[in-house]
UniProtKB/TrEMBL annotation:
Membership in a protein family: Belongs to the UDPGP type 2 family.
Protein name: UTP--glucose-1-phosphate uridylyltransferase
Species per Swiss-Prot/TrEMBL record: Puniceibacterium sediminis
Top-level taxon of the source organism: Bacteria
Example GO molecular function: UTP:glucose-1-phosphate uridylyltransferase activity
C-alpha cells in the first residue's frame, strides 16, 4: 500500500553534513587529519559531498563538526593568503582550482555548528535545527561516496519534488548476507526508482529482513524531523538514532526510498576507501595507465 499523497513539498534549500566523527577506523591517519579530508587520490571526501550538494542547488550548507576538527572549516572556505602566495609563485592553475573547490559565501550560506559529544546521527542533525532554512532538509554523509553522471542528491530532490512522502532515503539493493549491516526498507510498492515503504528495520537477520533495499547516506527529510528528534528517546548505544525518528514519523507523513543511479562506496571503511580510489582513478584519464599496469601485475602474479 502506498502512503497517502501529500502536497508538493517546499524546495530543499538546506544540506546538513554530519562531520563530527573522530574516524577511529582510520587511525593513526586521522589522529591529526579529519577523515572527511582523507583524499580519494587528490580530492578529499568532503569535496565530493560539497560538489554534490552544490550541483543540487543547495542554498545553505551546515557542517555539524567537532571543536577538534577546525581543518574542515579551513578547507571548505576560501583562503585568500594561500591564493595570493600561489599566484605569486606562478601557480595560477592550482590557485584557480582551490577557488573553484572552495564555497563561495556570496552564493552559498555556510555555517558551522558543534557536536561536542558523539550522541548519534539523529543528535547531529538536531544540532543544525536552529540554522536550517524553512522546509525539507537534505542530510549528506561524506563517508558514503556516490559516483555517477548525475549526483545522487540531485536525483533525490527531483523525485522528492513530485510529492508522495515526507521523508525520502537513498537505497541500494544488497546481497542477502549484507542486510544485517544496514537499515533495511520495508517496501510496500514501487514506482520506477521510487520505493514506497511503511518503515525500516535496523540491521535485521537475513531471514527477518523485509527486503534487500539498504538505506545509505543520503536523506531528504520533512522539516518536522527536528521536532521528532527533540522527542526521540535514545536508541542503540544510548544514542539518538535518525532512523528511529524517521520510522516513528512514517505513519504520519510517509516514507519512500530512492534507488539512485550512481555507485556507492563505503569510505568509512578501509576496504571501501580503497575501492573508491581505484574506481575514481579508473574514471580519470591521467591515471588509467597506472590502473592498467596494476591489473597486468596482478595477472602476472597469479
Amino acid at each position: 500500500m502506498e502512503p497517502k499523497v501529500i502536497a508538493t513539498p517546499l524546495p530543499v534549500r538546506t544540506a546538513i553534513f554530519p562531520v563530527a566523527g573522530l574516524g577511529t577506523r582510520f587511525l593513526p591517519a586521522t589522529k591529526a587529519t579529519p577523515k572527511e579530508l582523507l583524499p580519494v587520490l587528490d580530492r578529499p571526501l568532503i569535496q565530493f559531498a560539497i560538489d554534490e550538494a552544490r550541483a543540487a542547488g543547495i542554498e545553505r550548507m551546515i557542517f555539524v563538526s567537532h571543536p577538534s576538527k577546525g581543518a574542515i572549516e579551513k578547507y571548505v572556505t576560501h583562503d585568500a593568503v594561500l591564493h595570493e602566495q600561489l599566484c605569486a609563485k606562478g601557480k595560477h592553475d592550482v590557485a584557480d582550482r582551490l577557488v573553484e573547490n572552495a564555497l563561495d559565501t556570496d552564493k552559498i550560506d555556510v555555517r558551522f555548528v558543534m557536536q561536542d559529544e558523539p550522541l548519534g546521527l539523529g543528535h547531529a542533525v538536531l544540532c543544525a535545527a536552529e540554522d536550517a532554512l524553512p522546509g525539507p532538509v537534505a542530510v549528506v554523509l561524506p563517508d558514503d561516496l556516490i559516483l555517477g553522471e548525475i549526483g545522487c542528491l540531485s536525483e533525490m530532490i527531483e523525485a522528492y519534488a513530485q510529492g508522495g512522502a515526507g521523508h525520502m532515503v537513498a537505497t541500494m539493493q544488497v546481497d542477502p548476507d549484507a542486510v544485517k549491516s544496514y537499515g533495511i526498507l520495508s517496501v510496500t510498492g514501487r514506482d520506477d526508482k521510487v520505493l514506497w515503504a511503511d518503515g525500516m528495520v535496523e540491521k535485521p537477520a537475513p531471514a527477518d529482513a523485509p527486503s534487500r533495499q539498504a538505506v545509505v547516506g543520503r536523506y531528504v527529510l520533512d522539516g518536522s524531523i527536528f521536532d521528532d528528534l527533540r522527542d526521540q528517546e535514545p536508541g542503540a548505544g544510548g544514542e539518538i538514532q535518525l532512523t528511529d525518528a524517521i520510522s516513528r514519523a512514517t505513519p504520519r507523513i510517509g516514507l519512500s526510498g530512492y534507488r539512485f543511479s550512481g555507485q556507492r562506496y563505503d569510505c568509512g571503511s578501509k576496504e571501501g576507501m580503497l575501492r573508491a580510489i581505484l574506481a575514481y582513478a579508473n574514471m580519470t584519464p591521467e591515471f588509467r595507465d597506472v590502473i592498467s599496469e596494476h591489473k597486468i601485475s596482478l595477472l602476472a602474479a597469479e
